[in-house]
């Protein structure tokens, strides 16, 4: 037991590694601040395109949604970061991670939005149009607010997954929290910095997880 505690819960090593881990935390938060809004906005555009009455818009969008949901995010990230340079496109690690995660998350957010829009009774759109609103205005002011409310737990839950997904950025040596914790581990030959990073992830995500549960209970009642 003492050996286990020394290898995983050495407080002195955690204290020494904390500045590096906190430095990585800021990068993780910066990445989330870019990826989450881009994913939410991109997902909305994807959902609207997938519901378009025009086949030449709808079918390619659905195909791309299926493609980016089927591809593992890690494979997509490696392709964007390491594959695009062969086509003459070399991206900064931060940009590459943000772009790869945008492709992945827009597909998932798009499906959530689509389900929300389809959950709103068609009569809501017809009633809004009868008041003189245009199609776009009725969608923006009547249908979308109801759709978002209906799928809010799923949106928050997917956002939790996006935050966890940022840890994959370590594979392209982006100095986010897991990468910094792993650097500290490689120097100390001790897993305590990884446990420290895991504890910080837990502290950030636990309130969001509880929020999802609260939303789900409220909507079920």
UniProtKB/TrEMBL annotation:
It is a multi-pass membrane protein. Belongs to the binding-protein-dependent transport system permease family. HisMQ subfamily. Gene3D superfamilies: MetI-like. The lineage of its organism: Bacteria, Pseudomonadati, Pseudomonadota, Alphaproteobacteria, Rhodobacterales. The chain crosses the membrane at residues 25-51, 63-84, 187-209. The keyword Repeat does not apply. Keywords: Amino-acid transport, Cell membrane, Membrane, Transmembrane, Transmembrane helix, Transport. NCBIfam families: HEQRo_perm_3TM (TIGR01726). InterPro entries: AA_ABC_transptr_permease_3TM, ArtM/GltK/GlnP/TcyL/YhdX-like, MetI-like, MetI-like_sf. This is Amino acid ABC transporter membrane protein 2, PAAT family. GO terms for cellular component: ATP-binding cassette (ABC) transporter complex. Part of the binding-protein-dependent transport system for glutamine; probably responsible for the translocation of the substrate across the membrane. GO terms for molecular function: transmembrane transporter activity. It is found in: Cell inner membrane; Cell membrane. One of its GO terms (biological process) is amino acid transport. Its main location: membrane. Residues 25-213 form the ABC transmembrane type-1 domain. It comes from Rubrimonas cliftonensis.
């Amino acid at each position: 037991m003492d050996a286990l505690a020394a290898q995983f819960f050495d407080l002195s090593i955690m204290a020494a590694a904390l500045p590096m881990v906190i430095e990585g935390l800021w990068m993780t938060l910066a990445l989330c601040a870019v990826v989450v809004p881009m994913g939410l906005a991109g997902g909305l555009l994807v959902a609207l395109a997938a519901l378009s009455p025009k086949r030449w818009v709808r079918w390619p969008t659905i195909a791309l949604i299926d493609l980016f949901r089927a591809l593992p995010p890690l494979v997509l990230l490696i392709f964007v970061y390491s594959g695009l340079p062969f086509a003459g496109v070399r991206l900064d690690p931060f940009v590459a991670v943000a772009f790869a995660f945008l492709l992945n998350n827009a597909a998932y957010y798009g499906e959530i939005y689509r389900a929300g829009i389809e959950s709103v009774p068609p009569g809501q759109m017809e009633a809004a149009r009868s008041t003189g609103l245009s199609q776009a205005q009725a969608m923006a002011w009547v249908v979308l607010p109801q759709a978002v409310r209906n799928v809010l737990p799923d949106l928050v839950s997917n956002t939790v997954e996006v935050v966890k997904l940022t840890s994959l950025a370590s594979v392209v040596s982006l100095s986010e929290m897991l990468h910094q914790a792993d650097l500290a581990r490689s120097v100390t030959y001790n897993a305590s910095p990884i446990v420290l990073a895991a504890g910080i992830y837990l502290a950030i995500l636990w309130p969001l997880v509880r929020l999802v549960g609260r939303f789900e209970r409220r909507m079920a009642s």
